[in-house]
């Protein structure tokens, strides 16, 4: 589930903390912190599915309360149950892996019932919900509605963002990426499946190793890479440059020199995007220019060796 782009983000954030805190050279402690940060993204992936289920149960409870009214109307007694009968949500409820993971890690929305009510209200008042409830019941319409749920009712929801920010510092930049993984999981789901096949935390062991190696090598090679960068910014005061820019450049140098299966262009583009998102308005042009010069020189000096997929240049 965790992409290498998100791994780079996590490493950048932790490097910033490492170089700005009292790290006392305790690299192992920060390695554990990096792993924890990545695991929290997987927690969020599971929590988002759980939130959908909780909203569905809230809708069920609301229907039962309306039926129990002393002066129940015909609409109360004969409600539209399309949402509470959504077959994709039923598949999620039947997925033992979700139950086991969330229970064992004590993940739930029990402390914020107001969020569940809020998401339900946003959903109920939306045009897409009204359209869905009026459509003929089909598995495809159920699936598309769940995708819309993640795409429309959760992305950019202020209350959701506030709740997540209050509960974990690790989730600030993860929300949109994780929601895209929830959506991909639903898109792959088949009607015949008894339960949902969840993504793994890491696609493979090499991704897990990539995270640790990128973080550690950037720290261990910090002095030599800082010296290299200084030689290309002679007219700049290194101390006045944005630290995020310098860390992004250092990470890029480490990646192109130490990970021979990753194409140079892939690494280059990834770090330009990181600089654009995490640093100043001028960072994109600055990082682009300096990094391009450094990589070209490293290539000319024969210090970058690529194998396999890493040989691809375009």
Protein traits:
314 residues
* Total number of helices: 15
Helix content: 55-70%
Specify the overall morphology.
elongated
- Tell me the radius of gyration: 24 Å
N→C terminal distance: 26 Å
Q: What is the ordering of alpha helices and beta strands?
A: HHHHHHHHHHHHHHH
Class from secondary-structure proportions: mainly alpha
What portion of residues belong to β-strands? under 5%
Low-confidence stretches: none
How confident is the prediction overall: mean pLDDT?
92
Largest sheet: none
Give the beta-strand count: 0
Describe this protein's structure.
- Helix 1 (4-20) runs parallel beside helix 11 (205-220) and helix 14 (264-278) runs antiparallel to helix 15 (283-300).
- The protein is 67% helix and 0% strand.
- The protein is mainly alpha-helical and 314 residues long.
- The longest helix is centred in the N-terminal third of the chain and has 41 residues, at 27-67.
């Amino acid at each position: 589930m965790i992409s290498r782009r998100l791994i780079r983000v996590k490493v950048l954030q932790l490097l910033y903390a490492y170089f700005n805190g009292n790290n006392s050279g305790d690299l192992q402690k920060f390695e554990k912190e990096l792993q924890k940060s990545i695991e929290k993204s997987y927690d969020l992936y599971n929590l988002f599915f759980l939130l959908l289920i909780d909203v569905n149960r809230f809708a069920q409870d609301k229907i039962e309360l309306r039926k129990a009214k002393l002066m129940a109307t015909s609409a109360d007694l004969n409600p539209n149950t399309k949402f509470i009968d959504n077959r994709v949500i039923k598949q999620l409820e039947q997925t033992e892996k979700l139950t086991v993971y969330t229970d064992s890690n004590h993940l739930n929305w029990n402390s914020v019932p107001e969020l569940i009510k809020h998401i339900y209200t946003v959903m109920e008042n939306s045009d897409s919900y009204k359209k869905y409830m009026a459509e003929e019941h089909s598995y495809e319409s159920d699936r598309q509605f769940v995708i819309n749920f993640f795409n429309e009712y959760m992305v950019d929801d202020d209350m959701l963002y506030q709740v997540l920010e209050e509960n974990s510092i690790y989730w600030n930049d993860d929300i949109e990426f994780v929601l895209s993984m929830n959506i991909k999981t639903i898109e792959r789901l088949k009607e015949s499946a008894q339960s949902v096949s969840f993504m793994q935390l890491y696609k493979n062991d090499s991704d897990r190793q990539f995270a640790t190696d990128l973080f550690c090598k950037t720290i261990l090679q910090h002095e030599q890479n800082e010296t290299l960068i200084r030689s290309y910014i002679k007219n700049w005061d290194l101390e006045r440059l944005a630290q995020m820019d310098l860390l992004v450049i250092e990470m890029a140098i480490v990646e192109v020199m130490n990970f021979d299966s990753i194409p140079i262009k892939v690494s280059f583009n990834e770090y330009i995007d990181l600089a654009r998102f995490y640093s100043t308005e001028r960072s994109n042009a600055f990082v682009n220019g300096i990094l391009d010069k450094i990589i070209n020189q490293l290539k000319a000096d024969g210090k970058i060796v690529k194998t396999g997929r890493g040989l691809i240049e375009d």
